[in-house]
Amino acid sequence: MSKIRWILLVFVMLVTFAGGRPAAQKPYTIMVYMNGSDLESEFGAATADLVEMLDSGLDSRVANVLILTGGAKRWMNEAIPEYECLIWELADGQLNEIENMGLVNMGNPDTLAKFISFCQSRYPAEKYGLIMWDHGGGSIAGFGHDEKFDDASLTLLDMAAAFEAAGLRENKLEFLGFDACLMATVEMAIIAADYANVLIASEDLEPGDGWDYVFLGALNHNPSMDGHQLGRVIVDTFMDFYGEDSDEILTLSVVELSKVQAVMEAMGALMARASTRLEVMHNGFVDLSARRSKTKTFGEGSPRDNYADMVDIGDMAIQLQQIFPAEVTAVLTALESCVSYNRHNSDTALWGLSTFYIYGGKSLGVPSLAAYSGLGMDENFTEYLHVFFEFLTGRRSGHGGITRSELALWQPTGGNSYRLAGLLQTSPHWQPIGDLLWPTLGGHNIALYPIAKTANARMYAIPAVVNGRDADIIVSFTGCHPAGQIKGIRYQTGGVIQKGHDPIDPGDEIALYFLERNFATGREEWAEGEVFAAALPLELDWQLAPVGSKMGSRGRDVCCDDVYVVG
After folding, report:
1. Is the pLDDT score of 10 beyond 60?
2. How far is CA 96 from CA 15, 67, 526, in A?
3. Mean pLDDT on 531-542
4. Using one digit for the tens of pLDDT, what is the confidence trace for 342-377?
C-alpha cells in the first residue's frame, strides 16, 4: 500500500479529539508550523511529511510533537480540513486533534505567536523546537504562502514580532528550523538569536520533499540531545534521503546563534573597506562588481525572475581576499566558529550562512533595500549595499567591462530586430564536430539561462508561461542526462521562492518567452511565443541553427546588464 493511501486510512481511523489539561513535562516539545500552501494542495507534500512523522517510531514519552495545519486550499487526506486551522498531537503513531483555531491567516504573526504560546503552556518541556514548514525567500521575502489569504507571508520582522509576543525571549527555543528554501541567512540568524539557541536551515533551494522526518526517532535513544546534536541528525537524514548521486540542490546548516553577531560585525568591517574602494578608486565598482558576479548565489532564476540575491558569506569574502586579506580572515574565522555543522552538494565550497547582496534583482532594489534597512543589521554592511546599488543603477558613475560572454543565436524578426533564440555555454556534450547544435523545446529554439551548479548537475531556466502563469522551466544536465532533462516548472510567486518543481502534465499549455532586441535603437522587450500543448515526455532536442539565423554573443557587464552583439 502506498504511503499516501495508508495515511488516508490512518487519518480516518485514528484521528481523535484530545483537548484537556496540560501534559506532564517531557524532554522535548517540537512545534511544526505547517503552512501547507500549494505544496499540499497540489502535491500532498505536507501529507507525505505527516506520514514520515507517523512512521518515525517516536516514543511519545520522550517528546511532544505538535503540528498546526493551515494555509492550503485543500489537503490530500480525508481528515485535515481546508476551512479550519487545527493543532494536532503526534502520539504513539496517531494524530490527535488538540485545538481548533478557526480559519486564521498563517501569514499573520499573531497566528504564529498563539501557536507557540499554546504549545509551551500546554506541553511543558525541558527543550523546545520550532519548525517552519513551507516555501522560503531569504532575508527580504521571508517565509510562507497562505493560499487562503492571498498568499500572505511572514517577513523576518513579522517572525520577530511573533517570537516576542509568544515570550520566547524569556523561554528560548533550543532550535529554530526552516523546512523551506533560502532561510540559512545571517539576517534571520541575528533576529532569531534573541529567541533560540540554534538555527537549522538551508542556504539554497530545497527539493519538494524537504526534510526527512525519520529524524524524530533519534530522540528515542537520546532524548537529552541539544540543538546542535539534533541538528546534525536532521542534516544527515536530509542528505541521506536524497543520496550522494542526487541531481537535486542540497544544503543544510546548523548555526550557533550566540556567535552570529561576530559574523555580522566581521562582514561590516570587510564591507566598510569595500565602500571606501567604491568611493575613491577609479575602477573600484568595476572590480567589486566583477567579484560579485563570481560569488556563489542562491535562488537564481531566468532574467525574468532573478530577485533573491542571496550569496554565501564565505564565498563572498573569498572573492575579496586579494584586496582585503585581514578582514576576509576575520569573516571566515567567525563563520567557522558560528556554523557548527554544514553539508551540501554544491560545486563551490559553502560556509553555511548566506546574506543579501543586491545584483540580479536591482529592478526591485528600492523596496528591497528599504526592507533590508528596516532589519537593523550592521550599519557598515547596509551602507555598502546602498552605495553599491547606486553604482549598479547608474546613479553614480561606474565604468564598463564585460564579466561573462556566451555564444548567442539570433533569429531576425524584421528590420534591425532579432529574437534571442539560443545561448551556448561551453560543453563538449553540446556540440558535434564541425557544427554547433542548439537546443529546442516543442519545436522552438530556446535560450537556456544558467541558474545553479551542484557536484552532479548544471541547472538552467527557460522563461515561459505555463497554463497562464509566469514560470521558469528547469532543465538539468548530468552525467546520466548529458543532453538535458526537464525537471519541471518553478512558478514565479514573488519574493518567496517555490520549494521543488511542479511537474509538466500532458496537455499543459506552454508559451516560451523570448528576448527581442532592436540593435539600431537598443530597445529590448520580452515577447511571448505561440502556445503549444505539452506532449510527454517533454524533452530537449538539439538541432542545427535555422536558415537565416545569425551568430553573436551575450555578455554581462559590471552593472548586471546583458550586452548583446549580433554577427
Report:
1. no
2. 5, 10, 52
3. 90
4. 999 999 999 999 999 999 999 899 999 999 999 999
Which cell goes with 235? 542534516
How far, in Å, CA of 515 to CA of 533, rounded? 22
Look at residue 228 in the predicted model and tell me its pLDDT: 98
Alpha carbon of 212 to those of 201, 237, 238: distances in Å?
A: 13, 6, 5
What is the band of 431 on the pLDDT scale with cuts at 50, 70, 90?
very low
pLDDT of residue 158 exceeding 90, the answer is: yes
Over the stretch 194-210, which tens digit does the pLDDT of each residue have? 999 999 999 999 999 99
Quick one: which of 203, 469, 494, 525 has its CA closest to 367? 494
Rg of the chain over all Cα atoms, to the nearest angstrom: 24
Indicate the burial class of 282 (C-beta count within 10 angstroms; 0-12, 13-18, 19 or more).
exposed
**CA angle at 379 for the pair 171 and 290, rounded to the nearest 5°:** 115
The burial of 262, by beta-carbon neighbours within 10 Å (0-12 exposed, 13-18 middle, 19 or more buried), is given as middle
Whether omega before 537 lies within 30 degrees of 0, making that bond cis, reads: yes
Mean pLDDT, rounded, for 373-391? 96
End-to-end CA distance of the chain: 60
Q: How far is it, in rounded angstroms, from Cα 177 to Cα 171?
A: 17
pLDDT of residue 416: 86
What residues contact 357, with CB distance under 8 A and at least 6 apart?
Answer: 292, 295, 309, 310, 311, 316, 385
**Residues of 3-25 as b/e, b for ≥16 C-beta within 10 angstroms?**
eeeebbebbeeebeeeeeeeeee
C-alpha cell at 560: 548586471
Q: What is the pLDDT of residue 436?
A: 82
Residue type, 524: E
- The Cα-based distances of 261 to 176, 226, 325 in angstroms read 17, 21, 21
- Give the distance between the most distant pair of CA atoms in the chain: 78
Q: How far is CA 29 from the centre of its chain?
A: 27
Helices (H) and strands (E) in the chain, counts: 14, 29
Q: What is the mean pLDDT of the chain?
A: 90
How many Cα atoms occupy the beta-carbon half-sphere of 176 within 13 Å?
24
How many residues are given for the chain?
567
Contact 98, 63 (CB under 8 A): no
Report which residue type is found at 333: T
472 close to 461: Cβ distance less than 8 angstroms? yes
pTM of this structure:
0.93
